[in-house]
Specification:
The chain has 265 residues and is mainly alpha-helical. The chain has twelve helices and four strands.
Length: 265
């Protein structure tokens, strides 16, 4: 760095540059510290001096920063931005990054709006449930709203029993089986028929998989699944399933010679 007794023509102090470029002195000091823009000269009195070339670099930094480039990105880009093509390529990369951020922000907005609806429907403030709902919204699990029907014990069990992949797989199998049950109901297939009983066997198998064999969870599951007045399409569908599957389960347990619901009660 060149040193001068006085400020030569064509050089400016930090304060002068800050005023000319409408930035703060602290910003220029930070850019210097981070290696983005160091002054080209210094006076004997220790005043740091900038020339026209430094101002061009500062213009680049301000322009890139206004376009959303991070300071780390700018630091890397400044070295290579020597031609219009270089700058165009940098802008293309930045545009791609911005598009990704826009999609992420859109997804976050959807999560926020959906979470707001669930929060207003819940009776109490429960940040554990909020966290579970957010995770399921981000997973694009369309049955996220079921979480508010579960108490903390069942939610804790779900967290321990399932990860993202196994949880989505379980819901997929449960939904496909539920579709079969709805179809049986539409076709008026008798609960005692072999066709219905085979589906009931699979249904009970999913219940046992969900509880991991913990029969003490059955009353809570019954309470969570009990729907008096349906508030949405899923609950209306589940109410139909419950009305059909309950007598079919009674037949199934009767043939087994045991009723785990009555035993647990």
């Amino acid at each position: 760095m060149a040193k001068y007794r006085a400020i030569p023509e064509g050089f400016m102090t930090v304060g002068e540059v800050a005023k000319k470029m409408d930035v703060t002195v602290r910003t220029l000091q930070y850019y210097d510290k981070e290696g983005l823009l160091s002054p080209s000269a210094e006076s004997e009195g220790g005043r740091r001096l900038y020339n026209d070339k430094d101002l061009v670099t500062l213009h680049q930094i301000i322009s890139l920063k206004s376009l959303g480039f991070s300071l780390d990105d700018i630091k890397q880009q400044l070295v290579s931005l020597e031609t219009p093509a270089d700058f165009a390529n940098a802008l293309t990369e930045q545009a791609d990054d911005i598009r990704k951020k826009i999609e992420q922000l859109k997804a976050s907005l959807v999560v926020i709006e959906q979470l707001k609806t669930e929060v207003l429907q819940m009776q109490t403030v429960n940040f554990k449930k909020y966290a579970d709902i957010i995770v399921n919204l981000q997973m694009k699990n369309s049955y996220y709203y079921l979480i508010k029907r579960f108490d903390d014990d069942i939610l804790g069990h779900i967290r321990n029993q399932f990860d993202k992949e196994s949880g989505l797989d379980f819901m997929d199998r449960f939904n496909r089986l539920s579709d079969e049950i709805v179809q049986l109901q539409k076709e008026n297939v008798p609960p005692e028929s072999e066709k219905c009983q085979q589906v009931v066997k699979e249904y009970w198998g999913l219940v046992m998989e969900f509880t991991n064999g913990d029969m003490s969870m059955l009353p809570k599951l019954m309470e969570a699944g009990n729907i008096d007045t349906a508030a949405n399409a899923w609950e209306e569908r589940q109410k139909t399933i419950n009305n059909y599957i309950e007598p079919a389960l009674q037949v199934y347990f009767s043939r087994l010679g045991t009723n785990p619901f009555e035993e647990e009660t």
